[in-house]
Design a protein that fits this description.
Blueprint (H helix, E strand, L loop, with lengths): L8 E3 L2 E3 L2 E3 L9 H9 L3 E5 L3 H9 L3 H8 L16 H17 L6 E7 L7 H14 L4 E5 L6 H5 L9 E6 L2 H11 L8 E5 L5 E2 L11 H14 L6 E4 L5 H9 L4 E4 L13 H9 L5 E4 L8 E4 L6 E2 L19 H12 L7 E2 L5 H6 L30 H10 L18
Parallel strand pairs: 3-11, 4-5, 5-6, 6-7, 7-8, 8-10, 10-11
Antiparallel strand pairs: 1-2, 9-13, 12-13, 14-15
Helix pairs in contact: 2-4, 4-5
Length: about 425
């Protein structure tokens, strides 16, 4: 049986270990994680989700505080249409996060940034254009377009001097989505450098309806590969979603995928941004503890642990500080759901909002425990310590296990005497 290391992802003359780490926000895929994967010869992602808050934590800036102060008069107002992002400050935060990461890069791998179209930010086109072009300005190796069809995103970067040099890719979950994207971008004569095919077992937001169980990653990859072959398009395909072992990955590579994107196993790495107590929740999870629900205001189904504190929480919308999911009219599905509960509970007490959640605030506070379908298997990748907790792993250990393992084997770590702080 072949192993992942028998294959290489080729971008022109550059060859990489065909392992890509997904861009988990908000700062779950940290710069430290991306840098380590790049050092090892793969591709690491950072995310620009809530990049101003990420900058505040990483560089001790005050973007969120300043925005909150500027709009403090509107905090009690249910109308959030006035809450806008300062585009210059947004660009500054993006450049700081990306620039510092790229300056620290070592090794032969690459670092990409994950950009979600569903971060509409009360000005979808303008804010997305700033995010994309600022990342290019700061030297990012590549941009992965996610959480949306991105029919206009290439056009937002077309005038940038790095538009044809940086690696640009898109995440899709169907042939139709890719067809729409290619049709809309054809006039630019610029194909994506890679296509990530994300199946129904992925973590976080899914590119399917609640009928996600009817779909299969291998089938979708084969359908898209057949479409590309028929169109004579040589675009590397990356399989993603539910790829838990090196053997799982090698099977996709043997069947024509150019690389795999993985994330779940890296959520419990030392370099991951999740707090230590949340990593332990992931280790403890059983298969029955994982659900796909519709509480995300984006409209996409979302996979998470049933025990996530974000489910049913009735906190006041904090758009003056964040507001990343406000549409172009200042609306958000959570605000609507929250206001419906305020009518029932005018004092604002004992509010529970079950159908939607304040995704910005809960993701910022690591209280939305999104996860992949295989999270319940994480406990089998490590050892239990004397105090009952599970040992977290280095990103290098997990990466090399994917790279070199065979026969569905998982390499356990050396047993530590004490848990690693996280």
């Amino acid at each position: 049986m072949k192993r992942v290391d028998d294959f290489r992802l080729k971008f022109g003359r550059k060859e990489l270990v065909p392992i890509i780490i997904g861009g988990m926000g908000v700062d779950i895929s940290t710069a430290e994680l991306a840098l380590e994967v790049s050092r090892l010869g793969g591709i690491g992602h950072i995310s620009d989700a809530m990049v101003q808050d990420v900058s505040d934590r990483r560089f001790d800036t005050s973007f969120v505080k300043e925005k909150t102060k500027f709009y403090k008069h509107n905090i009690a107002n249910s109308d959030k249409s006035v809450v806008k992002f300062d585009l210059d400050r947004l660009a500054e935060a993006t450049k700081m996060h990306v620039g510092a990461t790229m300056e620290a890069k070592r090794g032969d791998g690459m670092i990409f940034i994950n950009c979600m179209e569903k971060l509409t930010m009360n000005s979808p086109r303008d804010t997305l254009q700033v995010r994309l072009n600022s990342a290019l300005d700061a030297g990012i190796d590549g941009i992965t377009l996610s959480a949306g069809l991105h029919l206009g995103s290439f056009g937002l970067m077309a005038d940038h001097p790095r538009f044809r040099d940086a690696k640009l890719g898109i995440i899709v979950s169907s042939v139709r989505a890719l067809q729409l994207f290619l049709r809309k971008t054809a006039r630019l004569q610029r194909l994506p450098d890679y296509v990530i095919v994300e199946g129904p077992l992925a973590g976080g937001h899914l590119g399917f309806g609640m009928d996600w169980e009817q779909y299969d990653l291998a089938t979708i990859v084969a359908e898209i590969a057949a479409f590309l072959k028929a169109e004579q398009l040589d675009i590397p395909l990356v399989a993603a979603g539910g790829i838990f072992t090196g053997s799982d990955a090698a099977a996709f590579l043997e069947n024509g995928a150019a690389a795999v994107q993985v994330a779940t196993r890296f959520t419990v790495s030392n370099e991951c941004g999740l707090p230590a107590k949340v990593k332990q929740e992931y280790f403890l999870a059983s298969e029955d503890d994982i659900e796909v629900n519709t509480i995300s205001p984006t409209g996409y189904p979302m996979r998470m642990l049933k025990s996530t504190p974000a489910i049913g929480a009735g906190i006041r919308p904090n758009c003056e500080a964040y507001g990343y999911l406000l549409d172009g009219n200042g609306n958000c599905a959570y605000i609507t759901a929250y206001n419906q509960q305020i009518v029932i509970h005018p004092d604002g007490k004992n509010i529970s909002v079950m159908d939607k959640t304040c995704l910005c605030t809960h993701m910022r506070n690591y209280n939305c425990w999104t996860c992949g379908s295989m999270t319940y298997r994480l406990k089998d990748t490590t050892r239990r310590l004397a105090d009952g907790t599970y040992q977290t792993l280095s990103a290098e250990h997990i990466f090399k296990d994917y790279q070199f393992s065979v026969d569905q084997q998982i390499m356990l770590p050396e047993l530590l005497a004490e848990p690693v702080p996280g």
